[in-house]
Specification:
Blueprint: E1 2-3, H1 7-27, H2 29-33, H3 38-56, E2 60-61, E3 66-67, H4 70-73, H5 79-82, E4 88-89, H6 92-104, H7 108-142, H8 147-156, H9 161-174, H10 180-206, H11 231-241, H12 243-268, H13 277-292, H14 300-320, H15 324-328, H16 332-357, H17 361-376, H18 378-392, H19 396-425
Parallel strand pairs: 1-2
Antiparallel strand pairs: 3-4
Helix pairs in contact: 1-3, 1-14, 3-14, 6-12, 6-13, 6-14, 7-8, 7-16, 7-19, 8-9, 8-10, 8-16, 8-19, 9-10, 10-16, 10-17, 10-18, 11-12, 11-14, 12-13, 16-17, 17-18, 17-19, 18-19
Length: 426
């Protein structure tokens, strides 16, 4: 029996999935110790339970993930498109709103003083993209697969993610790789899971024995339950902020809507950028204007709380809808390329980027962020960094520099790398 629940059911499931992740993370200290984000734990566990149900033969459950409800899609759609009630991913408003928080929450002074660390992250991400493509193409040729498959299972989907994969799919299909969009979606999903699972443990391995955070504060106890994120605690904190939280939420909504038009303009100009790019740029612009004017009304802790609610909801909805059976059935060459590229990315982050960043607490958090967006997505990068800083203490530079690097700057350097490989291989 095939069951296709309404996409809205996924939204209702998001909170139970997060609670499942919290309970398991608290009961299994090893998960918190290795910085596995709560939404990743809950989302993957739910996906495994769904896979078991599908394999049992009792029912086959396949979630629909797109909606056309005008009230839900208006913020992330221009009026011209919205009038036709287009289908949009259920999680898109959550994703775009989260990246708006990234833009609004990045103080210009920290970005300006990022200096060397910001340059290392951006250059490392760009080199990693070229490395993933090179390894991918070499493996594809060795396995008798189309060389372009190596790029799809390289920087297109690992550094790039779902948005970049869908944006470049027509070019790959024109270059001769059939079903590039489907292959790209599967590869990007693999990366999302791998990045969410591996970024935190790698940082924990690098930071072993380094108990103090950047400020020199006493180390956070490794097994404390307080290090596990609590969705309801963040919600209660927002409720306690009252009108201040409402005001910031309204600002975020305005930025999301304005960003939709910016993304529309970028798309018309031929830029293949993720759907959240416009809102991220608007958020940066508003924060820069606020800081330049000496404003104090934009509060970083409120934006961080809102982001702490939006990000888990996005990840829970995204991961709960995963069909692990589809990942398990990924063609042999594709799976080999993805696994090898993931291992190469981890080795590059640990042996090259970690020393360049200084081998300290901030460096460990930044490396987790690099693996997060270099294999999965900026969302998984932020989730991994949040899990680490809850246990080991704050890392303000990492938290300020990684999201704009993985969510914004890397797209401008990754796109030319992908284009160069397409032109070389066609």
């Amino acid at each position: 029996m095939l069951l296709t629940p309404s996409p809205w059911f996924l939204l209702l499931l998001a909170v139970p999935v997060l609670l499942l992740g919290e309970v398991v993370a608290r009961r299994v200290p090893l998960l918190a110790r290795y910085n596995l984000p709560v939404p990743v734990v809950g989302g993957l566990l739910f996906s495994v339970l769904l896979l078991a149900l599908n394999l049992s033969g009792l029912a086959v459950v396949s979630f629909a993930t797109k909606v056309s409800a005008g009230g839900w899609t208006w913020l992330v759609t221009t009026e011209v498109e919205w009038a036709a009630r287009p289908l949009k991913n259920l999680n898109l408003p959550l994703l775009v709103a989260f990246f708006t928080c990234v833009g609004l929450g990045a103080p210009v002074r920290i970005l300006r003083t990022g200096g060397r660390a910001l340059a290392v992250l951006l250059v490392a991400g760009t080199v990693l993209a070229a490395l993933q493509n090179t390894v991918g193409v070499a493996l594809a040729i060795a396995l008798g697969a189309p060389p372009l498959l190596g790029v799809v299972c390289g920087a297109l989907t690992l550094v790039g993610g779902h948005g970049t994969a869908l944006g470049f799919a027509p070019r790959f299909e024109q270059a001769g790789l059939a079903s590039a969009a489907t292959i790209g979606a599967s590869a990007a999903t693999f990366g999302l899971v791998a990045g969410g699972v591996l970024a935190g443990p790698l940082a924990e391995w690098l930071l072993r024995g380094r108990g103090k955070n950047v400020s020199g504060a006493a180390p956070v106890p490794l097994e404390t339950s307080a290090s596990v994120a609590s969705f309801f605690s963040d919600v209660r904190a927002l409720v306690g902020l009252g009108r201040t939280a409402v005001g910031h939420a309204v600002l975020i909504a305005v930025c999301v809507k304005a960003g939709t038009w910016v993304s529309f303009g970028l798309d018309r100009a031929g830029a293949s950028l993720p759907a959240y790019m416009g809102a991220l740029l608007v958020g940066f612009a508003v924060r820069a204007a606020h800081d330049a004017a000496g404003g104090t009304w934009l509060r970083g802790e409120v934006i961080a709380r809102l982001a702490a609610v939006l990000l888990p909801l996005f990840l829970a909805v995204t991961l709960a809808a995963l069909n692990l059976a589809e990942l398990a059935s990924v063609a042999g060459p594709m799976l080999v390329i993805l696994v090898v590229n993931t291992l190469v990315s981890l080795a590059f982050a640990a042996w090259v980027v970690w020393p360049l960043l200084g081998r300290d607490h901030e460096a460990g958090v930044m490396v987790a962020g690099l693996v997060g967006f270099g294999v999965g997505s900026t969302a998984t990068a932020v989730a991994a960094m949040d899990a680490i800083t809850r246990r080991r203490g704050p890392a303000p530079r990492a938290v300020a520099l990684v999201p704009p690097t993985g969510g914004f700057f890397i797209d401008f350097t990754n796109a030319p790398v992908i284009s160069a490989f397409i032109n070389l291989l066609r």
